[in-house]
Amino acid sequence: LIYAYVAAGEAGLRIIEVSDPAQPREVGYYDTPWFTWRVATDLTSRPGEIYAHVIDKLGSLRIVRVTDAAHPVLVATHAGVYGDVAVTEGYAYVSGDGGITILDLSDITQPRQVSSSSAGGWVNFIPRLAIAQNRAFVVGESGNMAMADVADPRRPFFHAARFWARTAPAEVIALPTLPGQENALVYVASGRHGLQIISWADVAHPERIGSLDPPGNTHAVTIAATADSTLAYVSDRDGDLHIVDVNQSENPHQLGSYDSTGMTWSVALAGDVAYVAAGEQGLHMVDMHDRARPQ
């Protein structure tokens, strides 16, 4: 079975079975006390179990067991004012007031803080973060980006260099680890500045190596990488989903687009189906077999 875990604001965490994209059905939900803001799934912390790490905006990180999708159960909380969460290799990375906090998930019922690191005085709050190849990339509310080395989760440290991505607080960063690529590239949905592709190969001098400005106010991006192609799926606040070929990072170009008729907040992929969170228009399942004409 395939499930979509949707952070639905005041409606909490909604769990939707999408095994048949033509007939999605809600099977369970968990209501957070405040505002369900972000969610990251976790299939590795405990064999045979599935967890959703949920940011309850301005309240806490809440870890919910969703192995039985119809009956999600809260197993742990960690207090803090957090903006985003990523889970990898037994650790949860959460961003918030001026830096990142790293939690050891070896006992999922008692997440233990092992470290924190400040990004410096350049930002008050960090609403977005992503992890790739032992690096944490964060975006502050003003659009400044920073990179931390997290090879040792107990001793993270931020590099001094900053990059101004010109993003608004609501926009997202996505980081794939691509085949044959020595350093992860950073893909940023930058509002009216479109999709930006940024290299941190030189940690002292990050640089933008490519960009594309599709119609609309870009809001979220996710990446699909295979041995043959790398595609970026970019959503905008006007309801469009843009499919962008980024095989050549210096020269990305658009292949096709889909109009959800709603305000697209986020996009996720499973096989040839894109799952588009379209605000009041709900969750759209889009067939991507023909990238030039998704439907």
Question: What report would you give on this structure?
Answer:
The chain is an all-beta fold and 295 residues long. 0% of the residues lie in helices and 51% in strands. It is built from no helices and 27 strands. It has strands at 3-7, 13-17, 25-30, 36-42, 51-56, 60-65, 73-79, 82-88, 91-96, 99-104, 112-118, 128-132, 135-139, 144-149, 157-158, 163-164, 173-174, 185-189, 195-199, 207-212, 218-225, 230-236, 240-245, 253-259, 266-270, 273-277, 283-287. The strands form 7 sheets. Strands 12, 13, 14, 15 and 16 form a 5-stranded antiparallel beta sheet that branches. Strand 26 (273-277) and strand 27 form a beta hairpin. It is globular. The model has no long low-confidence stretch (mean pLDDT 87).
